[in-house]
Design a protein that fits this description.
It is a single chain. The protein has 10 helices and 8 strands. By secondary structure, it is an alpha+beta fold. The strands form 2 sheets. The protein has a 5-stranded antiparallel β-sheet with strand order 5-4-8-7-6. Strands 1-3-2 form a 3-stranded mixed β-sheet, covered by helices on one side. A hairpin with a 4-residue loop joins strand 7 and strand 8.
Length: 281
């Protein structure tokens, strides 16, 4: 029977649970050692920040990653690649679900973000905390205070997975963009982009590419001039001339000087959203 993205995600979470329970401590090195993967602190072939290589049973982590938070999330993401690769059921389902290599890569990257977030902020901790807060990016700093071991991208991914039925959760920064050819030109750009796995034959909203610049007229970009929260209508910040309207709720994350935003097709303040119950689905 063909599994949906959401069903594959639930299967993956079971794999993560089993591995996490066997770790002496939840660190990238502990995970890689548990999975018997070699860590190579060199720039991966192709210039990515991280790469799992099946033939070498190794994970490359680029020394160019300056942020400890990003290196941590990337390490858990690449370790999850090994979990997906070693699971016969997931490999079979990916081959059946995805029509081409590009579609398969999209789902695998989605699963690996989910796995990385689960290692850093398990759903058993996240969901009860969210039940005591309104599902919104405004609760991020409260979540950080109550679960200090979690990173911002892990919290953002869990918000996307468990509280945003259809849309995007973005973490945006201001600074130079790797590989942009103009290192001295600082721009507002997307640092992380997260979505929820879909059920049935539905398709999730496409994710903007990482490090994609955000236009100056977008409310997210304006927040780097003034840190006031934003709630209102705008457009999805895709790299296209076509502007797809959306509802956006964004907050300034003071500890890291970044913006975290939820973007959805509908106003998320509607009563139906407020009454939505959280689950492990």
């Amino acid at each position: 029977m063909l599994m949906s993205e959401a069903e594959m995600a639930r299967h993956l979470l079971g794999l993560v649970d089993a591995v996490r329970a066997g770790l002496p401590r939840v660190t990238v090195d502990a995970l890689l050692n548990h999975l018997e993967l070699k860590r190579i602190d060199e720039e991966p072939p192709g210039g990515q920040e991280g790469l799992y290589v099946r033939e070498l049973q190794a994970v490359f982590l680029s020394p160019k990653i300056r942020s400890a938070e990003r290196k941590q999330f990337t390490g858990f993401h690449e370790g999850t690649h090994a979990l997906v690769d070693r699971d016969a059921l997931l490999r079979e389902q990916l081959a059946e679900l995805c029509s081409d290599d590009q579609a398969e890569r999209r789902v695998i990257e989605l699963l690996c973000d989910i796995g990385a977030a689960e290692f850093l902020m398990p759903r058993e901790s996240f969901v009860p905390l969210m039940r005591s807060h309104s599902p919104s990016v405004r609760c991020i700093q409260q979540l950080e205070a109550e679960f200090p071991g979690a990173s911002l991208p892990a919290i953002a991914q869990q918000i996307a997975h468990y509280t945003v039925p259809a849309g995007l959760v973005l973490v945006c920064a201001h600074g130079s963009i790797p590989g942009a050819g103009a290192p001295d030109r600082a721009r507002v750009h997307i640092q992380y982009s997260f979505v929820r796995p879909v059920t049935g034959s539905a398709r999730c909203r496409p994710r903007p590419r990482l490090y994609q610049p955000i236009r100056a007229d977008h409310p997210i970009a304006a927040m780097f001039e003034g840190s006031a929260p934003f709630s209102g209508t705008t457009y999805y910040p895709y790299n296209t001339d076509k502007r797809i309207p959306c509802w956006c709720e964004a907050i300034w994350h003071s500890p890291s000087s970044r913006v975290v935003a939820i973007l959805t097709d509908k106003d998320q303040r509607q009563p139906a959203r407020e009454q939505q119950s959280l689950s492990f689905e």
